[in-house]
Amino acid sequence: GEFDNAVTGARQALVAAERAGDRQTVARSRYVVGNVLMFGDPAGSRPLLEQARDLAAEVGDDYCRAMATVMLANSFLHAGEYRPAVPLTDEASRLGADLGLPEVRSWCWAATAWIDMSRGDLAGCRAAAAEAIAAARTVSDVVSELWATALLALLDAGCGRPDDAVRRIAGLRERALAMGAGFTLVLVELVIGVTDLVAGRLADARSRLLAVIESDGGATVHAYVGAHFYLIDVLRSAGDTDRADEVGRLCVRLAEERG
After folding, report:
1. Reduced to 3 states, what is the DSSP secondary structure of residue 89?
2. Whose CA, among 96, 105, 154, 248, lies 20 to 30 Å from 112?
3. Which SS3 state, helix, strand or coil, does residue 214 take?
4. Alpha-carbon torsion 140, 170, 198, 229, what sign?
5. pLDDT value of position 66
6. What is the dihedral of CA 170, 105, 118, 213, to 10 degrees?
């Protein structure tokens, strides 16, 4: 979760690469900076990801090109815009298939699952998420595995199976901590908060969603805005309509400000 340190290091590498005329390192550094920024500022990350993608294509770095492209797709998905993500995900998927790298394939399948969920294709979402998880496990990529698993857990909760959702995601908490991917825990907590809401455990849901909002502070815009969104349902279900309306207005403003 050390976003600032990650961005600082990548920006330093970018400056050094630009001075040395190392175009491949410039492309990869722009990708890293854009990738980190994408979680908190989806729209703001796009210029860097687009530059990384184009430069990687020029220098023949297909790995960087594929990853920059799928993260560009993710920048739209984090902003709730699945349509622009479709052609980008398709492009990255073709590159990933050519490269045969599980890491690339995992992120492409995870993006496909998110797109399918946005379209209402629940069967497609489950199938794509399963592919993402299988690919992620071959290279121990706990981050992409967690994103795909979170989608499946949200589907379980949405289909009225909150206990299945909790069981599905429970083991990833310890793995995320063990592998130093602690920033992904906010997504785990969001999913558990949603399952509490679906199960009617309103006090637990409220406490967990408020904890997500406080701990994240906007660093992960999807989880931050999402926690506000689900908190509206918690408040309405508890009869606190005035507070729900207040959070609703805040949620709209956050979504507009953060892209």
Report:
1. helix
2. 248
3. helix
4. negative
5. 96
6. 40
Which of 149, 214, 208, 193 has its CA nearest to residue 175? 149
Per the rule left: phi > 0, alpha: psi between -120 and 50, beta: everything else, 121 is beta
How many whole angstroms separate alpha carbon 42 and alpha carbon 251? 16
The pair of structure tokens assigned to 191 is: 């999913």
What is the rounded distance in angstroms from the CA atom of residue 68 to the CA atom of residue 49? Answer: 5
Helix, strand, coil shares, percent, the chain, to 5:
85, 0, 15
- What is the C-alpha radius of gyration for the chain, rounded to an integer number of angstroms? 18
Looking at residue 127, its amino acid is A
**Nearest alpha carbon to residue 219 among 188, 187, 180:** 187
Q: What confidence tens digit (pLDDT) does each residue in 234-246 have? A: 999 989 999 999 9
User: Which among 38, 102, 130, 44 has a CA at the least distance from the CA of 75?
Assistant: 38
One-letter amino acid identity for 6?
A
User: How many CB atoms lie under 10 A from the CB of residue 143?
Assistant: 17
The half-sphere exposure of 63 on its side-chain side, counting CA atoms within 13 A, is 8
- State residue 182's pLDDT score: 60
Residue with tokens 């406490």: 207
d(CA 144, CA 70): 12
pLDDT in tens, 49-106: 999 999 999 999 999 999 999 999 999 998 888 999 999 999 999 999 999 889 999 9
Global confidence as pTM: 0.86
Percent of the chain at pLDDT above 90? 46
pLDDT digit string (tens) for 156-208? 988 888 888 888 887 777 776 776 666 677 888 888 899 999 989 999 999 99
